[in-house]
Amino acid sequence: MADSMFYDQGGVRITRTIFEVPGTQYQIRNINSVRLFEKKPERNGPIICIVIGVLTLAAVIGIFVIALGIWWWNSQKPTYTIIMNTSSGDVDGYNSPDLEQVREIQSALNAAMAQLA
After folding, report:
1. C-alpha distances in angstroms, 86 versus 33, 35, 64, 90, 92?
2. 3: nearest Cα among 11, 12, 13
3. Cβ count within 10 A of residue 93
4. Roughly what angle, to the nearest 10 degrees, separates helices 61-75 and 44-55?
5. In whole angstroms, what is the distance from residue 45 CA to residue 50 CA?
6. Are 100 and 92 in contact (CB under 8 A)?
């Protein structure tokens, strides 16, 4: 029987039996459930940069430091992770800053798991 393809983009493949990411393969039958986790970026660096900029605002450099802090803050994006529950515990299956892609992969994994049931 041919292995049904649920997802195949950017090095990630999901078939009826395998979840493959670059460098690793997981057997679909060993995955109990999948969930999405959002890791928010650390904001301490940009906050410190902005505070230093405000404190040195009397000097022209303060404006540049504030601008740097704001740019740094805006350039940080959250990372989304697919966490798979297996008999061995929770495993990080895939990470990406692209929420749409991670949701597509999660949906494909759920579809592959449903076919095994």
Report:
1. 7, 12, 49, 6, 11
2. 13
3. 21
4. 160
5. 9
6. no
> How many Å apart are CA 38 and CA 10, to the nearest integer?
21
Q: What is the DSSP letter of 59?
A: S
108 burial class (0-12, 13-18, 19+ CB within 10 angstroms)?
buried
Q: What is the pLDDT of residues 5-56, one digit of tens each?
A: 899 998 999 999 999 999 899 999 999 999 999 999 999 999 999 898 888 8
Closest among 75, 73, 77 to 95, alpha carbons compared: 77
pTM, rounded to two decimals: 0.77
Question: Where would I find the H helices in the chain?
Answer: 44-55, 61-75, 99-116
**Total residue count of the chain as it appears in this document:** 117
- For tokens 């969930």, name the residue: 35
Backbone angles phi, psi at 94, to 5 degrees: -160, 140
